[in-house]
Amino acid sequence: MAKYDCLKCPGYCCSYPVIAITDRDVVRLAKHFGLSPAVVQTKFTKKTHGHDKVLRRKEDPHFGRICRFFDTTERRCTVYEARPGICRQFPGENRCGYYDFLQFEREHQKDPEYVATTDSGSFR
User: Fold this and answer.
1) Contact assessment for residue 74 and residue 60, using Cβ atoms and an 8 Å cutoff
2) Rounded CA gap, 16 and 90, in Å?
3) Could you give phi then psi for residue 66, rounded to 5 degrees?
4) DSSP three-state, residue 59
5) Chain mean position to CA 31
6) pTM for the whole thing?
7) Main-chain dihedrals φ then ψ at residue 119, nearest 5 degrees
8) Angstrom distance (rounded) from CA 22 to CA 41
9) Which of 54, 93, 109, 122 has the most CB atoms lying inside 10 A of its own CB?
């Protein structure tokens, strides 16, 4: 049984600098958007860190940069049904270290909405 709730998380795993995807993921996203796989690969991915296909990122108020498919207001994936395989597999076990960290921080800050950020200039 899972000991985390992604709906209560601000999207830590979506802030990874490298979210590598496969050809199968490109096809899934292409179907989702009604685009060709070539257009999806050009528009939504880039080559970096030794990978041919890494999801592009965008600005995020909590983590600096986050997956381009992440809704930064609602803190949710906008392509959940078509999300890449690596996202479907995460965290790969019954516990999520990010969720444990989130719960720990919220308890110790005595704030059920607290989100620890990676921006050292935004302490509250």
Assistant:
1) no
2) 12
3) -155, 165
4) strand
5) 20
6) 0.81
7) -95, 105
8) 10
9) 54
The dihedral sign for the CA sequence 104, 105, 110, 113: negative
**pLDDT digits 0-9 by tens, 72-121:** 999 999 999 999 999 998 887 788 888 888 888 889 999 888 887 655 44
Classify the C-alpha dihedral 76-98-26-56 as positive or negative: positive
**Cα angle: 1, vertex 68, 34; to 5 degrees:** 95
Measure the CA–CA gap between 66 and 21, rounded to whole angstroms: 15
Residues in the chain: 124
- Which token pair is 47? 């080559």
Q: Could you tell me the residue ranges of all domains in the chain?
A: 6-109
**Coil, strand or helix: which one is 53?**
strand
